[in-house]
Write a structure and sequence with these properties.
Order of helices and strands of chain A: HHHHHHHHHHH
Radius of gyration of chain A: 23 Å
Helix content of chain B: over 70%
Largest interface: A-B, 43 and 54 residues
Structural class of chain B: mainly alpha
Helix content of chain A: over 70%
Strand content of chain B: under 5%
Shape of chain B: globular
Strand content of chain A: under 5%
Number of strands of chain A: 0
Oligomer: heterodimer
Order of helices and strands of chain B: HHHHHHHHHHHHH
Radius of gyration of chain B: 24 Å
Chain lengths: 291, 337
């Protein structure tokens, strides 16, 4: 917490990975959510190509509101006669693309900024952190709304707007991790050996802060999927008729008392995906922090 | 991790205002000014990027360019952005947030009622989440890895994975559609009786509170277990023959409270901004709804005010956490970082 000061070098060193000491439960906790994530990704990206599902848009109104297990429509159809399963799969594809892109951008840009800030210190550090503080205090919804209104809602614009907010988060974590590293003997010896700064960052800092950043990235996947859903829910993310979990839920809300399943299906898939990513992140963190 | 602090208490009294704790708060307050200023500049700039002005929106698509131009002149939208920002800032410092471009009402009047609704929602959610999280975490940490602990961990990781709009719709489905005990949408002001008011606020408050409850429970339980396992003062307390509950509540919880306060402070700031979607689902006339409407009508004066209110709330919540921290912990290190 905020009151750490005394002898961080030794304490931190004692907390280095102890992956081998973990039992079978630990690995099951990793394998299971990873398998769920892989299954969902496979279903969303490969599913529509190999499974006999109709296209996600352009259904016939004559087939609207079919119940689940109707012939040809496993989960039934929505008010426009589109197949729900097919829409969930292709909606999931856009959710996953957005989430991966946003987290990669955040990890690369934010991670670099944070490591630089923590490593260089001084005025540069103060300036970078203050700018990021402003971004964190700025309500993300306003910017995404503004981007959606000015550039038009689209997948790329959603990615850009959300990346804007994942960067400060990654930067903070990367900076804190770098600051802890700076105290360790091997960093001092690298400096004493006359290793150039960029090389220290690349060869010594980057591999050491990577686990923390990747762990946060897993949790970030869940967060971005939820926020992307929220934007689409408000009509500012993936524009209809293209499906996304968020806009499917939003569409289903209008007839929630008559056809609750329209809300339940996409919500359930959204929940399972986010849960799997959260468990993955939590278990990775537990493993890497040796708790 | 948290340093062991013992069960000490700050002696309130002489010199508190000049104490290092208050200096810390003063420093944070000074640091907060550029943040709020930065947020307001950023908002102004971003809003200027959006095509289409309030004048265009007010007159409708059939208006001629001359009409739009005339109204823009009247509203002062033709002046350079920098000047408009400085004007706005000058007003804002004296508590005048300008006039809505659409309804021509003073923005402070518009904000007043909305802020009360959002504030009530956030306060309820905060009370529910923290009020339940503390006992749950204490019970779970009393016997770690036993049934109750495991159950509460499953509940919290589940709750953390539910998007609040999904939870809100689920609550509507169960309690408004199926059981019809709560209204699905709408807001009853406090003036029409506290019972009806609470009934209209119950579902939205729970939708916001549940993920927070899960988060606080997880955090506090983890910190408590760490304290109980690794800290010397716990061993000392146990050696003195103090009962397990006493050790947990009087000693471990006092220390874990610091971490919790920080987290709650960080959360509380985002809480008031995070009510937007839930307000939308339940049709509550709060800040979020006001902001969404204002964005759609290009009423940027109102959007600007909303954003600044959100930013100030976030900064104040953090500051309050720092203040509490300084009051509770007599041995805070006052250095930077």
């Amino acid at each position: 917490m905020a009151v750490v000061d005394a002898g961080p070098a030794l304490v931190e060193h004692a907390e280095t990975p102890t992956a081998r000491t973990r039992g079978r439960v630990g690995s099951l906790g990793l394998v299971l959510p990873a398998a769920v994530v892989a299954l969902i990704a496979l279903a969303c990206f490969v599913g529509p190509l190999v499974l006999p599902v109709p296209p996600p848009i352009g259904g016939s109104v004559l087939e609207s509101y079919l119940p689940a297990f109707s012939p040809g429509h496993l989960l039934g159809t929505d008010p426009n006669g589109n197949d729900i399963l097919s829409r969930i799969l292709s909606g999931g594809r856009s959710s996953l693309i957005v989430a991966v892109a946003v987290n990669l951008l955040g990890l690369l840009v934010g991670g670099t900024l944070g490591a630089l800030s923590g490593f260089v210190g001084g005025v540069a550090d103060t300036v970078i952190m203050r700018v990021l503080d402003v971004l964190i205090a700025f309500p993300s919804l306003v910017l995404t709304l503004a981007v959606a209104q000015s550039l038009g809602p689209s997948q790329t614009n959603t990615i850009l707007a959300l990346a804007f907010f994942s960067i400060p988060a990654f930067a903070r974590i990367s900076r804190a991790a770098t600051l802890r590293l700076r105290e360790l003997p091997f960093m001092a010896s690298a400096v004493l050996c006359g290793t150039p700064g960029w090389r220290i960052l690349l060869r010594h800092v980057a591999p050491n802060i990577a686990p923390q950043l990747i762990t946060f990235g897993m949790l970030g996947m869940g967060i971005v999927i939820v926020i992307e859903g929220a934007l689409s829910f408000l009509g500012l993310g993936i524009p209809p008729p293209a499906p996304s979990w968020g806009n499917m839920i939003s569409q289903g809300q209008q007839s929630i008392s008559a056809t609750p399943m329209l809300v339940v299906w996409p919500s359930a898939v959204l929940f399972v995906t986010v849960l799997a990513f959260n468990l993955l992140g939590e278990n990775l963190r537990a493993r890497w922090s040796g708790r | 991790m948290t340093a062991s602090v013992g069960a000490g208490r700050h002696r309130a009294g002489a010199g508190f205002l000049t104490s290092p704790g208050m200096r810390l708060v003063g420093k944070r307050l000074l640091l907060a000014v550029p943040i709020v200023l930065g947020v307001s500049i950023l908002t102004f700039w971003v809003l200027n990027l959006i095509p289409g002005s309030a004048a265009q929106q007010l007159l409708g698509p059939e208006a001629t360019p001359e009409q739009v131009r005339a109204l823009e002149l009247e509203l002062g939208l033709d002046r350079p952005a920098v000047l408009r920002y400085l004007d706005w800032l000058g007003g804002a410092v004296t508590g005048d947030l300008g006039q809505s471009l659409v309804s021509r009402q003073p923005v402070t009047d518009l904000l007043g009622e909305r802020l009360a609704v959002s504030g009530e929602l956030a306060a309820l959610a905060f009370l529910i989440s923290l009020g339940l999280a503390v006992p749950t975490a204490l019970l779970a940490a009393y016997r770690p890895n036993r049934l109750f602990d495991r159950l509460s961990m499953v509940v919290s990781i589940t709750g953390l994975s539910v998007a609040n709009y999904v939870l809100a719709l689920l609550l509507v489905l169960i309690f408004a559609v199926q059981m019809a005990v709560f209204p699905a949408i709408g807001f009853v002001p406090l003036s029409q009786g506290p019972g009806a008011n609470l009934q209209s606020m119950a579902l939205p408050a729970v939708a916001i509170a549940f993920p927070l409850y899960c988060f606080y429970t997880r955090f506090l339980r983890g910190d408590l277990v760490d304290q109980l396992q690794g800290e010397d003062y716990v061993t000392t307390a146990r050696a003195k023959g103090i009962g397990p509950w006493q050790v947990l509540v009087r000693h471990a919880f006092r220390n874990s409270a610091f971490g919790l306060i920080t987290v709650v402070g960080l959360n509380l700031g985002t809480l008031i901004g995070g009510t937007v979607i839930v307000e939308q689902i339940f049709a509550l006339p709060g800040m979020g709804q006001l902001m969404l409407q204002a964005i759609n009508t290009r009423d940027f004066v109102v959007v600007q005010a909303c954003v600044v209110v959100f930013a100030v709330a976030a900064v104040l919540a953090n500051l309050l956490a720092d203040l509490l921290y300084a009051v509770l912990d007599p041995r805070i290190r006052y250095g930077s970082r």
